[in-house]
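ugh ok fine here u go
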Amino acid sequence: MSTTPPAKVQSGTTDWDVQAKNNRAPANSQVLKQGDTFAIVDQLGEIGGAGDSEQGVYHLGTRFLSTWELLINNKRPLLLNSTMKEDNSSFVVQMTTPELPQPDHVLPQGTLHVFRSMLLDGGTFYEHLRLKNYSRSPVDLEVEYRFASDFRDIFEVRGEHRAQRGELLEAKVDKSAVALAYHGLDDQKREVNVAFDGKVKIIEPRRCVLQVHLGGGEETTLHATAECHTEKSGYVKKPDTPSRSHAEAVTGWSNRLRQTEAERVEIFTSNEEFNGWLNRSNADLDMLISDTIYGRYPYAGVPWFATPFGRDGIITALETLWVRPKLARGVLSFLAATQATEVDPSIESEPGKIVHEMRDGEMAALGEVPFKRYYGTVDATPLFVILAGQYYRRTGDREFIEFIWHNIRRAVNWIDEYGDVDGDGFVEYQSHNERGLTHQCWKDSNDSIFHSDGRDAKGAIAVSEVQGYVYQAKLLAAELADVMDDAAWASELRQQAVRLKEDFNARFWVPSIGTFAIALDGDKMACKVRNSNAGHLLFSGIVDPCHAASVAATLTDERAFNGWGIRTISAGEVRYNPMSYHNGSIWPHDTAMCAAGLARYGFRDECARVIAGLFDASLFNDLHRLPELFCGFDRMPGHAPTLYPVACSPQAWATGAAFLLLQSILGLTFSPTKPQVQFENPRLPDFLNWVRIQNLRIGDGVVDLAFHRHPRDVGMNVERKEGDLQIVVIG
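structure:
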């Protein structure tokens, strides 16, 4: 089994797993992202020092900088420290130099301070370089930048071979700038303009040397920029913006962050480490969110999935809905605008279907990968309806629901008309072309859906969690139909949901394993494999109460729960591999949805145990950042979780896990009929003595709440309440 992630580009006849190259960037690489641009640099702020790796500055799916190195007097500076700013806006590196010979003396090591600050804004990479001479003697310096661009598509960087590429154009060299350009096979010109300020001694296509004289105790500041341009911007992306000064870019970041902070719910707890996890999750989410022409959307993850994914965006919005309702509106707007309108097997498109993935790079434009706009997912469409229903519960925003009502109706129609491939009442997937995904659920590796004896599931496959999503979607669509004064359709939807729940519990339940089959194959044979998707079933509410305790037990026994999180496939199953992508690894979003399902059915102790595991995992990760996934090996006392070698970090739905976990343990829900927030049997895990929630807006009101853990229960105090809203505690 592969220990590298699928590129989300498999098919039944061709293995499209795009392998990440072996020469990876160091584990301590740092990530910057803003809009459709992201950068991966090493501890020194360098690009390319690790060899053939994923480091670089990327814009709209293409690497625009593949080399970025700094030399002073032909020597590489020595690292003192490097840190990412807490809000992810900039990366700061502090260095010094080894001994630097001068005409009449030698500048000792540790005398020149080198300060680098890097950020992204509007498609431009900025470096602010400050040099200070701490000696009493003057010093003459040659500051050299080395740079290059390979203009490789991100799929090429991931390892996909191309038989033919476009043309690297001749560099244009100006007095203080170099323009590097590439004319792609898609007839699009991509260009990066690398510019410097200061006294230029040498400027060539791959380097620039600046002369600096510093008297004793003096300092100076230099700036360098790499401005990315494309002839055509993406069809839903905002166009490239003109480069600004470094100071203007810093101000722009500050203004955006202030606006975001003013809108969101603030959470404080008694545990500073837990606060650190929440703060990191907020900062990562802010970084991953991009402005599109349809609204704000969380891109899935850096580096491989820095683009819109339907399922990922919806689940991220659901996880964070109670603290960031405006993000859910942006996700719904984007997905409604890109909803499929026609049948096109080449991109798995059918009327009403919600998009899976969208790409801007050259290979997508040419069809070398099928993801320019690809609809090969079975779950995004019911999840879209769920998000719309939950958004209305959270906000009461009838005007927006009316605006996307036709999209909601079309999504439900897709479930009924196209989703049920064989007419058995369950929603299935089956690839319609040889280049798309074999498995079109969230576990979309080629080997992820299988029988207990290891055989692949074949045919039109009905995965379990999707039936739960459809059940929940029908009930929430019924609530929205009531809002839209369509009582007849609401009644019909509720009847359909009741039938689906009955049929699902009858067909998918497997007594011998104490949980639900992961899927039914095309012959309606159950895939009797213990799996984490059962937690999604609890999350949706489709599980008959008579099965809930058994499902909870299988999710939290030692085969499934490894001390950090819940394995995608339980230990002991025939394809179990803790190093695999989907057959035994731990995904924070998956574990969080399982915990939410446990809480929904009243298993608060189990929920608290799972929360504690993921929280502990966050403590061992750099910046408290949970990655896309990590390996499912048993937890060893005093040791960190085993990292998955090519996981995205940050990843949007991993950042949202902390907020869903806290909501679940507090039993926090919103009323579909009035401005009301409910807390059902609220609990706090042992590591939290108190939690304060501020600026929680419900309708036109706002409330501040405090929860305190007592030996037998949790007490709640209302510290501020403005407007017409209700607060209800149950249990």
